[in-house]
Structure to design on (354 residues):
C-alpha cells in the first residue's frame, strides 16, 4: 500500500505549465496602395501562433497609423477589423493563406499640413482575448495632396486619332517644391482590364487640354479614363508618384469614315518616238499609315473622267498606254485606305500626244 501511495505522489510533482496564449504571429507582408485620399492596406491573416501552433481563434485586427514618426506601438488605432466570419469554422488553417484588407481615408487637413511627409501604417492582429504579439511590418505612404479629376473629360474621333480633352482647373495653391501635379490618360480595349498610358499633361494652366491617341486600331471598341497624379521629386531619391481619382470611362468605337490625304505633285510626261506612245505619271506618295493604294483618272476635253486601273495602284507612279495621237489628256489621282475610303482627286496634270 505504501508503495502505491508513493507512486501517486511522484506523478503529481512537476513544473507548472504556462497557459496557452495563442498569440497570432504578426503579419510580415503588409502592403499599401494610395489612390486619391484612400489608402488600401492588404495583409495575410496569420495562420500560426508565436508558439508555432495553428491559430484556432482570432480576435480583431488593429489598424495603426502615425504621421509623426515610425510606429513603435499601435497606441490609439484608427480602425479595427473583425476576423472573417467563417474563421472559427476552420479547425486547422495549416499554411493556407487568407488575405484581409482595410481602406483608410486621409483627411485634407492631414495632406495640407504634411505635404512632404509620409504616414506610417501597421496592423496588429489580436487573439480572442484582445492580446497581440506586436506590430506587423510597417509601410509608408506619401501625404501630398492629389487633385480632383475634371468633370468634362470627353473623347471624339477625328481623322488624326481619338482626341481626349478636358478643362484643366487652376491650382488653388502654388505647387510646393518638389511637388508637381498632372493628368494621365489611360486606355483599355473592350473585354480586357489591362490599361496603357496614352498621354500625360501638366496641371495648373486653367485652359482646355487634350491628348490625341493615334496608336489604335479602327473598328475596335476602347474605353478611356483620366487620372490626376502628384509627383514628389525628393532630392537624391526616386520620384514618388501618387494616383488621384479617376474620371468615368468614355467609350469609343473608332469607325473609319476618314479618307486618306489627297495626293499632290502629279506630273504627266509623254514618251513615244520610236515606240508605242504612252504617258508616264508620277506623284508624291501619301504617308497615311492605312493607305491601300491609288486610283488614276483620265479624261479628254469635253469628256467625264474615267478610272484607268482595275485594281489599286500600289506605287505613286503609273503608265497610260491607251493614248491616241493628236489628243490632249488630263489626269488626276486619288488615295484609298484599307477600308475603301477614297480621298478627293488631286489637281489635274495635262499632257498632249503629238
Amino acid at each position: 500500500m505504501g508503495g502505491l501511495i508513493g507512486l501517486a505522489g511522484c506523478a503529481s510533482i512537476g513544473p507548472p505549465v504556462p497557459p496557452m496564449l495563442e498569440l497570432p504571429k504578426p503579419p510580415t507582408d503588409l502592403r499599401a496602395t494610395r489612390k486619391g485620399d484612400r489608402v488600401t492596406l492588404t495583409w495575410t491573416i496569420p495562420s500560426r501562433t508565436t508558439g508555432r501552433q495553428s491559430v484556432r481563434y482570432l480576435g480583431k485586427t488593429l489598424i495603426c497609423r502615425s504621421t509623426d514618426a515610425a510606429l513603435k506601438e499601435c497606441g490609439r488605432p484608427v480602425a479595427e477589423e473583425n476576423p472573417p466570419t467563417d474563421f472559427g469554422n476552420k479547425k486547422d488553417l495549416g499554411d493556407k493563406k487568407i488575405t484581409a484588407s482595410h481602406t483608410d481615408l486621409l483627411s485634407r487637413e492631414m495632406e495640407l499640413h504634411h505635404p512632404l511627409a509620409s504616414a506610417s501604417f501597421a496592423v496588429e492582429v489580436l487573439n480572442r482575448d484582445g492580446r497581440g504579439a506586436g506590430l506587423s511590418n510597417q509601410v509608408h505612404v506619401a501625404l501630398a495632396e492629389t487633385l480632383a479629376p475634371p468633370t468634362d473629360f470627353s473623347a471624339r474621333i477625328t481623322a488624326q486619332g481619338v482626341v481626349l480633352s478636358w478643362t484643366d482647373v487652376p491650382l488653388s495653391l502654388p505647387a510646393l517644391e518638389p511637388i508637381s501635379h498632372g493628368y494621365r490618360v489611360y486606355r483599355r480595349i473592350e473585354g480586357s482590364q489591362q490599361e496603357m498610358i496614352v498621354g500625360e499633361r501638366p496641371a495648373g494652366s486653367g485652359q482646355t487640354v487634350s491628348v490625341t491617341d493615334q496608336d489604335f486600331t479602327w473598328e475596335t471598341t476602347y474605353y478611356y479614363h483620366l487620372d490626376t497624379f502628384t509627383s514628389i521629386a525628393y532630392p537624391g531619391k526616386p520620384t514618388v508618384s501618387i494616383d488621384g481619382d479617376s474620371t468615368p470611362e468614355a467609350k469609343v468605337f473608332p469607325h473609319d469614315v476618314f479618307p486618306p490625304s489627297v495626293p499632290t505633285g502629279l506630273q504627266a510626261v509623254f514618251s513615244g518616238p520610236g515606240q508605242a506612245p504612252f504617258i508616264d505619271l508620277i506623284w508624291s506618295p501619301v504617308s497615311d499609315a492605312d493607305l491601300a493604294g491609288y486610283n488614276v483618272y483620265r479624261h479628254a476635253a469635253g469628256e467625264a473622267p474615267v478610272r484607268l486601273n482595275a485594281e489599286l495602284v500600289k506605287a505613286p507612279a503609273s503608265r497610260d498606254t491607251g493614248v491616241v495621237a493628236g489628243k490632249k489628256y488630263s489626269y488626276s489621282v486619288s488615295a484609298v485606305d484599307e477600308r475603301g475610303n477614297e480621298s478627293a482627286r488631286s489637281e489635274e496634270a495635262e499632257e498632249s500626244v503629238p
Notes: Residues 1-12 have pLDDT under 50 and may be disordered. Residues 2-11 form the longest helix (10 residues). The helical segments are 2-11, 108-113.
